[in-house]
Amino acid sequence: MFEELQITQYNKLLADKAPTPGGGSALAVIGAIACSLVQMTLNITIEKTADEETTRYLREEYTAFVRAQKALYRLSDDDAAAFDGIVTCLKMPKGTPEEQKTRQSELQKRYHRAALVPLDVMAVCKDALRRCKLRVMPHLSKYVASDSTIAADLFNTVIRNSAENVYANTCRINDSALRANLEEQCRKLTEEIC
């Protein structure tokens, strides 16, 4: 859905008073933009590369960044859907004990889902960051090296800030074992960022 919008249309949605899309969706889009930057650096380098083996290698990397970008656009939509699910649950009736129990049960499922999406964003961006720094940057044309550095910094930013969205949801999860598991996954994804 958001992938189909022009940048100005998406920004207008972000600025609107509706709660979605919000920060998590925007972070996924920023990750997708970082993928575009890496793709550009690869395209320019491939054009200047005469060696067939290196060209094949760089094209494989390009394909990996196309996949990452598609995943991030999907996650941008998923983030908005997850938060919309929370908002829907908050509007559920809570006049009787049974309604309160149903509402709370549904909210717990929605908070769990809302914590999983930024974890997925973090995982995609961490893989993209490693690829960018370890597999792509050493082979790039010097004319586009700064663009790959910018992409790497964007991936780093998305990872760090997506962690905030994980914690914004896990703090509402009553199941302490589930909460601890999700927060441990988050911690692992933020440690040793390149």
Main β-sheet, in a few words? Answer: none
> Could you say how many structural domains there are in total?
1
At CATH's second level, what is the architecture?
Up-down Bundle
The arrangement of helices and strands along the chain is HHHHHH
Instruction: Give the rounded overall mean pLDDT.
Output: 93
Q: Give the class from helix and strand content and strand pairing.
A: mainly alpha
Helix content: over 70%
Tally of individual helices: 6
The CATH homologous superfamily name equals: Formiminotetrahydrofolate cyclodeaminase monomer, up-and-down helical bundle
The Cα radius of gyration reads 19 Å
CATH class: Mainly Alpha
Shape: elongated
Ranges where pLDDT stays below 50 over 5 or more residues in a row are none
Distance between the termini: 31 Å
Q: Can you count the beta strands?
A: 0
Q: Give the strand content.
A: under 5%
| CATH topology (fold) name | Four Helix Bundle (Hemerythrin (Met), subunit A)
Give the SSE layout:
Elements: H1 7-15, H2 23-48, H3 52-90, H4 97-136, H5 145-170, H6 176-190
Helix pairs in contact: 2-3, 2-4, 2-5, 3-4, 4-5, 4-6, 5-6
Provide a compact summary of the structure.
The protein is 80% helix and 0% strand. By secondary structure, it is an all-alpha fold.
